Every structure is written in C-alpha cells, then in structure tokens.
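Posting here for the record, re: magnesium ion.
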Amino acid sequence: MTNAVEMQNVTVRFPGVLANDQVNLTLKQGEIHALLGENGAGKSTLMNVLAGLYKQSSGTLKVHGQPVSFNSPKDAIAQGIGMIHQHFMLVPTQTVTENILLGLDDPGFALNLPRYDQKVLDLQAQFGLHVDPAAKIWQLSVGEQQRVEILKVLYRGADILIMDEPTAVLAPQEIDELMNTMRSMVALGKSIIFISHKLHEVTAVADKVTVLRKGVVTAEGISAKGLTPAKLAQLMVGREVVFSVKKKAQEPGDVVLSVNDIHAENNKGVPALRGLSLDVRSGEILGIAGVTGNGQSELAEVITGLRSCTGRVIINDEEIANRPPIRAIESGVGHIPEDRSKVGTAPNLSITRNTIMKSYRHEPIGNGWTINFVKARQEARQLKDKYAILAPSVKTPARNLSGGNLQKVILAREISTRPKLLVAMQPTRGLDVGAIEAVQTLLLEQREAGAAILLISEELEELLSLSDRIAVISHGKIMGVMPVEEADVNKIGLMMVGSETVNN
Amino acid sequence: MDPIIILHAGLATGTVLLFATIGELITERAGILNLGLEGMMLIGAMAGFSTSLATNNPWLGLVVAMLAGGALSMAHGLVTIHFQADQVVSGLSLTFLGTGIAMVFGEGLTGQNPPTIPVIDIPGLASIPWVGPVFFENHSVLVYVGYLLIPAAWYFIHKTRPGMHLRAIGEKPEAADTMGVNVYRLRYFYVFVGGCLAGLAGATISLAVSPGWYSVQTTSGQGWIAIGLVIFAQWDPLRAAVGSYLFGALRRGILDLQGPPTLFGLTNPLYVNSNWGFFLQMTPYILTILALVLGARAAAKKRIGAPAALGVPYIRGERGL
Ligand SMILES: Nc1ncnc2c1ncn2[C@@H]1O[C@H](COP(=O)(O)OP(=O)(O)OP(=O)(O)O)[C@@H](O)[C@H]1O
Ligand SMILES: [Mg+2]
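Prediction output follows.
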C-alpha cells in the first residue's frame, strides 16, 4: 500500500504557542487514521496545514509520494484533499447547493440552481445525508449544517478526506450512518483522517491512531486493533481518566423553573415548541433527551429570554417569558449556549472581557458607570487557574482558544455568578475526555450547591449518568418524564420517536 | 412644475446616482467599503470631459473616465486589501485625493464645450402615451444604458456563478477561501468594478446630464448620496434603481421649487432665500433613514442587510467568525 500523505517534522507556531512541534504523520492509502489529542493539542492546526490554510514554519508534506507545497486551499483541493472544518465554513445567507458549488468551475456562468439542487439530492441519497438543498444555511440546525460540510467534500470527489470532529454535532444514529459512509469510502480507495473526542468511535472505525499531546506526537500511527478507550485516554491525557463521574444522592428542593404550555417558532417561522411544560427543582438535574431539531434550542432560548413565545416561564415566582434576557440573568439564570463561539463568547474580546460579561454590572468589577479592569483581570486570572483554562494569558482573544478551553471560559463565567438555574445545552460537545470529566464534575457541584439544572444533551450516557430525571422531547412536546432509575436506552429511544407516553 | 418634465429630468439625474450606487453596491457585496465615491466620480467627470475635449470623441471620454475611476479605486484596494488598513480612513482619504487630482487637472476646463453623448429617442417605445415621453424620449444614450444595467446587475449578483462568489467573499470570506476561491484577487476586481462605475457616473454628469466642468460643483455631493442609497437599497440593484430615480427626481423637484416667486399663493421662502434649499437637500437622507426604520423588521426576518464581512479585512489563518 502506498502512502497517501506523509507529513514530516511539521512545526507550526502562533504568537505565544507552539501548536505543532516536529510532528510526523503518515496516512496510508485506503485507511482510516484517527488523530487524537486533548483540546488545544494542535490537531486542527496540523490538518489546516494539510488543507493549505496554514503554512508550517518548517517540515515537509508529501501527497502520493510527491513533495508538495501549498500556498492556498486551492492547491490542496487540486491534490484531492478535502477538509471538513471543525468550525463551519459555510456562507449563512446562501443556500445549501450554493455552498456546495462554491469554488467549482461547473456551473459555468449562469447558476441554474434547480438543476444542481437535483444533483445534490442524488448525492444525499447515495450517502444518506439529508438536508433541503434550497434551504439557506442560517435556517438549518447545527447538525444539518455539519451534513452540508460533509456533502461539500463528497461533491468534489476528494480522495483524501480530513474530518475534523465531524461527529461532534451528529445524533447517534447519524454517527452510525457516517461511519458506514466512511467505511464505504475507504473501500473505494479513499483515505481518511478522522478527528474525534469520542473514543469508542475511534476504536470502532479507525485502522491507525496518532496521538498529539501539547503539539508533540506521543503515539505515531499505532494500530487501532486491541486499543481500548481507556488506553487511548491515557495516551492523550497522560493519566487515567474517570469515565463516569459520581453523583451523590440528594433530595431536590423547591421548584425553581416552571414552564407552562409554551409555544414558539423556530428561525424558519415553523412552530418548534407546541405546548411544552416542565418543572425543574433546586438541587436537581433534569435531562432533556431527544433528536436534534425537536425544539431543544428553542426551549433553551425561550427560558433565557432570547426567543419570544406564548405561555408562561416562571423562575422563582417571577414571570420571565418575553422579557429581555437581562431579566432572566437577574433572576439567576446561567446559560451555556449550544453555539459557544457566536452566542457564548465574543470572539474578538479577551478572556478577561468574556469572563466579566455578566459580573461587570456589579461591585467589585463595575459600579454601573466604569469598569475596574485591575479587578477584572484579577478575577479572570483566578477563574483561568480554577477552571484550568489553557491560554497564553487572560489577554488572549477568545477566538484563539481551542473548543474545550472556550467552553471552560463560558462555564467559568456562568458558574461564578452562582446561578439558581443553569440551562446547559450540549455542554460537553467537542470536549476531550479530560475536559468532559471536568465539566460534568462542575455541573454536579452546582447541583449539590442547590442550583436547578436543565441539561439538554444528545449523549444518552451523559444524561443517564448526570440527571435525576429525564424528559424526552419530540416535535416540541415533552413525551414523558421519568426518574433516571426507571430510564433506559430503549425506553427513551421509543419515546423519542413518539410512541410511548409515561406521565410524571 | 410639469410632472412629466420633473420625472424626465429625474431619470437623467438618477442615472448618475444609479451608476455610482450600483458600483458601490458591488464593491460592498465583496466586503469592501469604499467611501471615496465622490473623489472617483470627480476624477471620472474631469477625465471624461477633458478626453472628449482633446479627441472630439465623447465615447472615448467615457472609457477614459471609467479607467480613471478604476485606477483611483486601486489605491483603496491596495491599502485595504493588501495592507489591511482601515477602510473608512482609506476611503475618506481617497475622496480628498480624487478631488485634488480632479481640481488640478481640471483647471481651464470650465466654459469649454466638447462633444457630449448623443440624445436619442427609442423608436416605437417613445410613442407610448405618458410612459414614452418620460422614459424613452429625448434621453442621453447613457440613460438607456442605465436601464439595461439594472437587470444585468441583479442577474449577475443572484443568478450567476461569479455573482455567487461575490456574495460569498463579502459574507464569509474564509468559507470561500477554503473552497479554493481567491478572495484577495476577487476583492481587488470588484473594487475596480466599483471604481469604473463611479468614473462612469462622473462622466455621465459632465458629458450627458449637465454637460460642463464646474470643479467640485460638478458632482456636488452626489457620491455621498449614493453611499446612503446603497443602504437604502439594502445592497439590492432593483431597490438601488428605485432609490436612484426617486432621489434624482427629488433633486430635480427641489431645484424647481426654488424657481417661482410664489407657491400656492404664498411667498416662496426658497425664492426669497435660496439657502433654505440646503435643508431640502437632506431629504434623500431622511428618506433613507425612514426606509431603514420602516424596513428593519422585514429585513431582520429575511436576513437581508449589510454583507457580514463588510469593512473587515480578510487575513487567512486568522481565527474568527
Ligand atoms: N490562528 C491562531 N492564532 C493563535 N493561536 C492559535 C491559532 N489557532 C490555534 N491556536 C492555538 O494553537 C493551539 C492548538 O489549537 P488547535 O485548534 O489546533 O487544537 P485542537 O487540537 O484542534 O483542539 P480542539 O480539540 O479543541 O479542537 C491552541 O493552543 C490554540 O489556542
Ligand atoms: Mg480542533
């Protein structure tokens, strides 16, 4: 078997960060090669070099044995390399088909979109990745957008695919489908580099594994046979990782959040919540299970004041539906949004400014008129240490942080305001095993401190290990609520498709 | 105050705004804000006028005007695309640079009479009652060119592959770049296109709509109105056309209002003191604000509005949104 890609001694530097240090990686033709590492280990950086987006400061690249030097992504595309980026590279105001056609020579001058919509539909059927080709990107859920990213590369017929956390936003069933797609692509002679933090996916699909730790290779192209998730975690983090955090038994307190018969529309103007009701008590985690796009995002937005609705949302006896978000914040709502880079943080602002985004209104950081930046930086430094946020300094802009560290910034900000209610949407998505452990521990600490927590997640295992009760959402309604002791995967799965109702 | 005359003259004046607005709109769609419109129009007006004077060929004048506007715009391109400097600062400087060059080289042009772009009727269409006399009779050829430019620009932006790339580089350049679209080159190109159309707008004044060279008074701030019009138009050529012609007619109507000593039996304050007219010249801007306020909700719902990356330099590999 020949080598599809050889990267030798690749080094990449950013101001204050050595992102890749003399990295070697060899991808054989027809193999699935997993690239693992903690958040910020340098995986995306290395792949961006291979995709022509970043330039290495030293080191060489070979594609199919030929030395290559990329000056732009176009050069990499010409070598048959296609990358599915971790952060969506989609034009929000354009349609799915337009995004797929970007940069191609066909169509000629006139676009004639309907014709290409049909081609996109054919491709979708072939790989089982469905999304309306005429929809604008901004109307799509995160999961659907990820599908568009995959379709973009498939449409170009690239034979070396880089998938930077493609499964992070997919539902379990979609992940299975994607893995089948990957296997069939490899059978057709394509080669794949696959990045994921979900180690069971790696053991299920990968042939070889390369592990990065803080920019350095700690395992180079070892065979995936016989590797267990525990062993992989050890290689990545350098210590043993607890895969299931311990939850203390405790009696829930009073009702903190009470949602009553709410209706709301999604961005497309279609009803997304249809008469949804639920309660969350202090010291309790209510897990919301369901397939993406069944109203989860809208529910979180209604509760945090970001979306208008009809019906009642009461937090500690105060009505907050259809009030400005500040009302929710002042009645003690913390929010860990689904989209951490656009909603959760201001990417161009420093870690300091991102962490004080809620506390700046009050002493000691602000007095309503001025902000005490000495105090703010102190506070930010403390949070950076406490939450182990990896960054050169608190002045680093949020956009330069890796996914896991960005999430920690949000958690630090939200938890430091001591919320009475915490709305957490996919809080561990895209995080490495160590960071997941840290985030889950933080959520449980908040539970013990008496916060009410609404945990919206697609990871059933996460819901089962953290929640006290589990509610299943489908088509904008709660299909049923059950104590976690009575919940199991089958029961939840059935309710997700709407065929069984269990009442509280 | 004959409405047909005002509308007729409004279309002619509006054609100047139309060229400038569509040019700026295309540049802004690519993500670059060029506030130097006034300077590029002046250069175009001067270059077109003096070329026609020197060669007796007004058509050659148009070509030179467009190249002059385009050449000046490349200074803005270099500063904002290559050196990634602030687009507002660069655009404002460009206004002064263009005005300066036009004034220096325009000396002695006042009072000259070079050949201008011919005025023609469109056979057949001109005889339609009401419509014919307003739209298709006794207009400069450039007015008819303007009619063609509107659907062409709309079609280009929304229905062609290069138009799709144009929209992409102004909305999310990194998405276009990772798909192999050359963001830098295309941005230069569309800054140039905008410059050419601004030059054409200038020459439309000096060689067609109000022939002559009156130094800075030649354009008298129409470049700034066009910048407002792009916003009024929400970056859409069809709305740009409506806005341009409407404002053209308004400009003309305002001039006409200053003529008669009495209006509806009362003394005309504009006749007594023409300086009141300066307030009327705000009208286009007030209308822009009104249109924006009234249209804001609909715009938010349909996600129309400024290109997301407008004014933001693109730097490959820079993390961001
Ligand atoms: N454009 C940039 N400018 C400055 N620093 C950067 C840039 N891109 C990445 N970094 C830094 O380089 C390091 C590696 O980041 P990278 O995104 O490659 O990590 P990763 O392994 O992909 O992490 P994750 O699993 O969270 O996606 C991080 O410390 C990050 O902050
Ligand atoms: Mg990454």
